[in-house]
Specification:
The protein has 400 residues and is of the alpha+beta class. It has helices at residues 10-29, 43-49, 51-55, 77-84, 133-154, 178-194, 236-239, 266-277, 300-312, 326-334, 346-351, 375-387, and strands at 33-34, 40-42, 63-65, 68-72, 96-105, 121-131, 160-165, 199-203, 212-218, 224-233, 244-245, 251-252, 256-261, 290-294, 317-320, 340-344, 353-357, 369-374. It has 2 domains: 10-277, Bira Bifunctional Protein, Domain 2 (BirA Bifunctional Protein, domain 2, 2-Layer Sandwich), CATH 3.30.930; 290-387, 3-Layer(aba) Sandwich (Rossmann fold).
Length: 400
């Protein structure tokens, strides 16, 4: 297929979908609207946005069509600006928040590619907020809280905030508007200070259109990578003639754009997630949430009944009712790291119960088992654990 072009297999797609479903719920609570934009656009759009003058090395070569020159998009923002500009906007519509889950294409050098951490085709949950300068502080604060809530839910703790600034000595890389750089950088600095968020500053790490707040992680190999980003764009308002009608009915062109991607690319996020949990994901993220194992072939019918009841509750379940020994089945399935194994034997079938076992490669709780839990109780408690997106496997305690 080509370097840097990952193929998501079924289990990986489950992870990606769970992350995106969580993002969708979160964005709805913050009143974002979803849009979808094309994978490519005319050259003129990327010239207008400034990406061709300042980011052309990161874009794929142009495609000549009968009606002009086209480029694959490396980002969604130019098209989102057109969504905003699609009609006249009122001050009552601001902040105007739009989000998109889509695919972008970046021409990364082959030497920079690194597994899922850096790829050429990237899936991302991207959004843009159009607001006044007075609204920037609250919107940035909301997005910092969103990032912190995400990280808490996923169990991430070792990260830090970085205020990424322009380099006035390298004006080819940036839009050369020193006054705007100074004011927007100070604005983000004041917001972070007011929120009492510790941060470091890094010259030369800004986007070409404005400063940004990056959330930095360190990989297992000791390499620092950006995960989430919140960027303040002062250039789009002029380039795209963004405006709104103010309280007096006058056209006001002071529209600031906040670019935000709290979950990075899904490729990079899944890479960090897998590294963090060593593949032993919380139940809501586990591709196989319940692995049913029968002690003998006599429990086939009961196993089918239990699986059907779990599937009705949208639980991801797999059944092994083969004639292999119980020990062999456990050893085989622990490699796939299901959240829970259900051991079903004669007693469980007779009493309509399940025996629950945690047995995952590398999990310190492997071997912990709870015998004889009523089936209905197990389904109820498991559903609560999944729907709450709990980080803990709470249905098993050590046997007395």
């Amino acid at each position: 297929i080509g370097k840097g072009l990952p193929v998501w297999l079924p289990n990986g797609e489950i992870l990606k979908s769970e992350i995106e479903n969580y993002a969708l719920e979160t964005e709805e609570s913050y009143e974002y609207q979803r849009v979808t934009t094309p994978a490519l656009a005319k050259q003129e759009l990327f010239e207008c946005s400034g990406h061709l003058p300042h980011y052309s090395d990161g874009m794929y070569p142009p495609m000549e069509m009968d009606d002009g020159t086209y480029y694959l998009k490396a980002m969604n923002c130019p098209m989102h600006h057109l969504v905003y500009r699609n009609k006249k906007r009122s001050y009552r519509e601001l902040p105007f928040r739009i989000a998109e889950y889509g695919t972008c294409y970046r021409n990364e050098m082959s030497g920079a590619l690194a597994g899922l951490l850096r790829v050429r085709m990237l899936s991302m949950n991207d959004a843009h907020i159009y607001c006044t300068l007075d609204q920037v502080g609250q919107e940035v604060a909301n997005n910092i809280k969103m990032v912190q809530d995400y990280y808490s839910k996923f169990g991430f703790e070792n990260y830090h905030f970085r205020l990424s600034l322009w380099d006035p000595e390298n004006t080819d890389k940036y839009i050369e508007q020193p006054e705007n750089w100074a004011s927007t950088q100070n604005h983000l600095r004041e917001i972070l200070d007011e929120l009492k968020v510790p941060y470091v500053e890094a010259i030369g790490e800004a986007a070409f259109y404005g400063p940004k707040i990056d959330i930095q992680f360190t990989t297992a190999l000791g390499r620092e990578e950006s995960m989430s980003t919140i960027q303040l764009d002062f250039a789009a308002k002029e380039r795209f003639e963004l405006s709104y009608k103010d309280e007096n009915g006058d056209e006001n062109g002071e529209v600031f754009v906040i670019h935000r991607a709290p979950l990075s690319t899904h490729e990079r996020f899944v890479a960090f997630l897998t590294e963090h949990w060593a593949g032993n994901f919380p139940t809501w993220l586990s591709p196989v949430q319940v692995q049913i194992i029968t002690i003998s072939e006599k429990q086939k019918q009961y196993a089918s009944k239990v699986a059907s009841m779990l599937k009705e509750e949208k639980i991801r379940v797999s059944v092994d009712d083969s004639d292999a020994t119980i020990g062999k089945k456990i050893r085989m399935h622990r490699k796939m790291r299901p959240a829970y194994m259900l051991i079903l034997g004669e007693d469980e079938e007779k009493e309509n119960t399940v025996s629950i076992r945690i047995d995952r490669k590398g999990d310190s709780r492997s071997g912990d088992q709870c015998n004889g839990m009523p089936l209905e109780q197990f389904i109820t408690e498991l559903t609560i654990e999944v729907n709450s997106r709990s980080r803990k496997l709470s249905l098993v305690t050590k046997e007395d």
